[in-house]
Amino acid sequence: MKCREKLLLSLLVLLLAGMSLSWRLESSSKAAPLGHDATFVIKTITGAKKVEIQLVFFDEKQCTLRVAVNPSRQMAAPLNEIAAEAKALAVCNGGYFHVDNLTSDGLEIADGRRADEFRRNAGWVGALMVRQDKPSLILEKEFQDAPDISDFIQCSPWLVDEGQICPVLNPSQDPRNRRTFIMTDGAGRWAIGVCNGVGLHELAGILVTPGIITEMKVKRALNLDGGPFTGLWCRSADDREHFEKPGWEVRNAIMVLPRDSR
């Protein structure tokens, strides 16, 4: 990379980091237990605008991640039915897909069954990978295929890496929309979440601003499919259901499952 390009990238990273300082936590709901130490929290954040963020936190010692697939539009099940069949604690929508025929756009692995292929050189690509029952968020350059990968969702762009905002898009080309994302502290703590009406830069800024995500330190965060496909389902231990329902059918979903269910 030329010196001028490096300088511009550095300035962009600093600019985006500065944007994160404009956000503050207005309120946070009491954590609702979902079982197996997983919890559901709703936070209200103010800054450039007021936004609501809904999060399911869990620990990989108690829970694992799996991918569920809707093979066709005719057989597509909503997130709550996917959760009920798998006895999941929580479910969110997954990666990109072709809307016309509900086929995966990028590598998808669900319980060892594969569809499509890994897309490289697409720019800020990452993935959720479960290998030997251990989940991880990986960069494109870190991906090495292996037969023991049981579950995999490729998506983009990266929001946070090493606790810093990624220069994912030109802010002028970053419309506010419904967003779904997944994040980890790299030490066993995870969350899936949805946020309405934010740009990708804004969402990344929220996730790394001190005092907002107090349940964990966000080391890596990956954007999932958003817009009308944004969805999150969970049911608390006292049988209260929360369902942020997608407007359309989705190809795949990410499930949070108790480890003793496998």
Quickly describe the structure:
This protein is mostly beta strands and 262 residues long.
Instruction: List unreliable stretches of 5+ residues.
Output: 1-20
β-strand amount: 35-45%
Overall morphology: globular
Total separate domains: 1
Mean pLDDT: 90
* Rg from Cα: 17 Å
Helix content: 10-25%
Q: Structural class per helix/strand content? A: mainly beta
Largest sheet, described in full?
Answer: 9 strands, antiparallel
Order of helical and strand elements: HEEEEEHEEEEEEEEEEEEHEEEE
Number of helices: 3
Number of strands: 21
Beginning-to-end CA distance, first to last residue: 46 Å
InterPro entries: NAGPA
Could you characterize what this model shows?
There is one protein chain. By secondary structure, the protein is mainly beta. Helices cover 13% and strands 42% of the residues. It has helices at residues 3-19, 79-86, 200-208, and strands at 24-28, 32-35, 38-46, 51-59, 63-69, 90-93, 97-98, 103-104, 108-110, 113-115, 126-131, 134-139, 149-155, 158-161, 164-165, 177-184, 189-198, 220-223, 232-235, 241-244, 252-258. Strands 1, 2, 3, 4, 14, 15, 16, 17 and 18 form a 9-stranded antiparallel sheet that branches. Strands 5-21-6-19-20 form a 5-stranded antiparallel sheet, with helices on one face. Strands 10-9-13-11-12 form a 5-stranded antiparallel sheet, with no helix packed on it. It is globular, with a radius of gyration of 17 Å. The model is unreliable at 1-20 (pLDDT under 50). InterPro entries: NAGPA (IPR018711). Pfam families: NAGPA (PF09992). Residues 87-256 form the Phosphodiester glycosidase domain.
